[in-house]
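User: I'm writing a short report section on ligand binding and want a predicted complex to refer to. Could you take this sequence and zinc ion and write out the structure as tokens? A short remark afterwards would be nice.
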Amino acid sequence: MGAAPDDLVRIFDTTLRDGEQSPGATMNVEEKLAIARQLDELGVDVIEAGFAASSEGDFAAVQAVAEAVSGPVVLSLARTKEADILRAVRAVEKAARPGIHVFIATSDIHLQHKLMMSRQQVVEAAGWAVELARKHVGHVEFSAEDASRSDRDYLGQVFAEAIRAGATVCNVPDTTGYAIPEQLQALFAWLRANVPGGDRIVWSTHNHNDLGMAVANSLAAVRGGARQVECTINGIGERAGNTSMEEVVMALDTREDYFGLRTNVRTEQIYRASRLLTQVTGITVPINKPIVGENAFAHEAGIHQDGVLKYKLTYEIMRPEKIGRPSNTLVLGKHSGRAAFVDRLKSLGLFGPGLDVNAAFIAFKALADRKKNVYDEDLVALVTEEATRVPRRYELLALDASSSSTRQPTAKVRVRIGEAEAEAEAGGDGIVDATYNALAAVVARFGGRVPQLDRYAVKAITGGTDAQGEVSCLLRDGDVLAGGQGSHTDILMASALAWLSALNKLEYLRAHRPVEAETGP
Ligand code: KIV
Ligand code: ZN
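Assistant: Sure. The structure tokens for the complex follow:
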């Protein structure tokens, strides 16, 4: 990347790396590919596709993303170790625009208690690693982990060495979510002014949300001179998460009058990206989440509704269409043909390269048979589900359940497991419990490990009694967590689909457990 125009804020998406570190957000290769393709559609500048040296699975995912997307730079994270850097180089070598992201911690706390290294050793490791990475790729980002808690002069010294060694981007992470916006703004202004070579590179900000300030900190950093924001879709990430991509992009867009800056993001793709991630991980967003939450554009108070009806801008600072939120209009039904279906997908921005239109159309017909009116929201759910469909070991073939106030609810399921089929019946505290017990019985019969249900949530995608329900659940097997999601006009079916989708993912994760990183991020 050459020198950025000063009014461009690059969007560096780390959903597939830092975001994936969020409990239950682990994704398989196909799911990462679906997200990466959507990020490409969205127009992000950089995709951090994973940490290639951390596991075979991560390596394969970075490699697959590198080959699949052509617009953004595709990066792999690497520690300042030769093996990590060479593994990252291999993983991104087929990318149209490859990059390496080297990091090492710079705070005294990390040096003394984690790395057991002196300040001088860290300076040398940073320079050495960046130099090695630059021998292989032109785009090298250097991150000083825990930068916001590091001694400022020392931090400047490490960055100066990274720049001398060839770093093209310097990232200042607030790893623990400790920073205050004004402090961060001042830190960026100081680094830009005082680090030798600091005017030749792009300064980047990377914030965690432990004190709820990740977005505010990112915007303050931009005011201080950062021209790259590292963020994740829906703000997912370790602990309280990372900077939320949609919030930071829409803040820059909506308050362009104040910031005078722009991004390359096609904002109309934001809602789809958010939905896709929810679909893949089973991690739903709170209803009041800015931009993408269910209520983010809903006006409930009479006085507000009155104002909006008279003139939208009385209470609205953004239009939902701007982020590609469907307006919930009636669109299609069981007599709609393929052309109308494809046309509607195109106008909703859902017609992407990763979509199997035949499969999506068959799924649409099945849905229209169960549901009189198929709304835009239903189409978003359907297409995101199709986009992430992967060959599954466990598949639901049939579900029969009965519930009564006078006897214990029971459920009977038939499941395909690889080439075989199995049935089981069970009772439970409620109808969902009975269904899950029956599914667990099938798994146990085939010698599988029965997971524990950690989280279960249900919501309606559209209104009305034939609304589709969307269920997300989180399954646990020891310390391995996997989220799954299912949507159906029947909540119980959606529940069973969600459980099996999480189970399929759990199996995948057990088979691709990451190698423990000694000094991982
Ligand atoms: O939070 C952090 O410090 C990181 C770095 C590896 C950039 O994620
Ligand atoms: Zn981070």
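A remark for your report: Confidence is low (pLDDT under 50) at residues 516-520. The longest strand covers residues 394-402.
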